[in-house]
Amino acid sequence: MTRFLTWILAVAVCAATTSRASAWNSIGHMVVAKLAYDQLDAKQQLELYRLLKSHPHYDAFLAAGRPAEIENEVEWVVLRSAVWSDWIRSRKSDRRGIDVTKYSRGEEHYVNIPFIDPKDEDLFAGKTLVSSDLTNIVCALKQRFNDLKTKNAAIEDRAVAACWLFHLVGDIHQPLHNVAYFSSDNAFLTGDMGGNKFGIRADGRKWKLHAFWDDLLGMDSDYNDDSSVHQATLYREAIKIAESLRGLKLTDADNEKLAKNVTFESWSREGFELAKTVAYQKSDGSGLLKAVEVRFTGPISDDVEEVGKEYIQTARATAERQVVLAGRRLADRMKASLQP
Fold it and tell me: How far is it, in rounded angstroms, from Cα 29 to Cα 251?
């Protein structure tokens, strides 16, 4: 069984299935961007800004909607760049006649590494649970980083690559973007799409597990609202959260991760382990959360389990450490790519 799991994890590095929701919401992604931005020196910040000005959606999105009282245009553009990869996905709101979805690659936002319910390991032994033919976030990060580093590439392509990096480094640090839960339950024989089919209750409110983790850093009341007022509110909230995390003391284990895990694959393995040991686990250590299917349409069942305050606190602390790690790693990658 161990050999099988080792093999399937290797296969999963370049595999994906049905598209699903993005990691973190707009606030979370901008927090990562702000933490990274503040670790760049003034020359690197300006170089990044100059690059992003060549982006095909600079006027339509990156620089759009900045209120007059927010004077730092450079910071506004950089933080907005971390949300662009979600803006181009198919959404309900009007895009002012711009074909934004041609840049969208939903399967590149995540990777499905199988997490098999321990009681069902024999059932899945020897089975291929994910396709090896499709791309995923690990493959995408490698490609975008190479695109950004290629100095003779079209500047528009490098600007697009920078936006993808700002977003995907955030995505890969959300644990549920590195996992798919499998069990003998008919609802989970083909996986739970990173917690999108897995229901929980937290403080009395019913959630998809994935959405609960997306919103741990702050609530975005309407992810489709592109209005200047709404976007400025999100921006200010992200700045405030990033400032509160600036003094967060990382554990020895976190610092060891920063020193040893320097590849995109290793970041994904970190997320997978956190999904297994935190996201799907009861806070009292008694085993996995009760797996109840959540359908894409219709209400969430009343059968979903209350996770409890300790779980919520642990999840929030995990999310905070993850975005701090993401900010550090994103800054390092950008420093290596933004030579004037």
Answer: 22
Contact 178, 70 (CB under 8 A): no
pLDDT (tens digit per residue) in 265-286? 999 999 999 999 999 999 999 9
295 burial (CB, 10 Å; 0-12 / 13-18 / 19+) is exposed
Sign of CA pseudo-dihedral 191, 110, 23, 270: positive
| HSE, side-chain direction, 13 A CA sphere, residue 138 | 26
Quick: pLDDT tens for 84-113. 999 998 654 445 667 777 888 889 999 999
pTM for the whole structure = 0.92
Owner of token pair 């390991």: 121
Nearest to 169 by CA among 326, 276, 332: 326
* Backbone phi, psi, residue 182, to 5°: -120, 140
H helix intervals, the chain: 2-12, 26-37, 42-52, 73-81, 84-87, 121-124, 137-149, 155-172, 209-214, 228-245, 252-260, 264-274, 309-335
CB-based contacts of 306: which residues, under 8 Å, 6+ apart? 200, 201, 202, 204
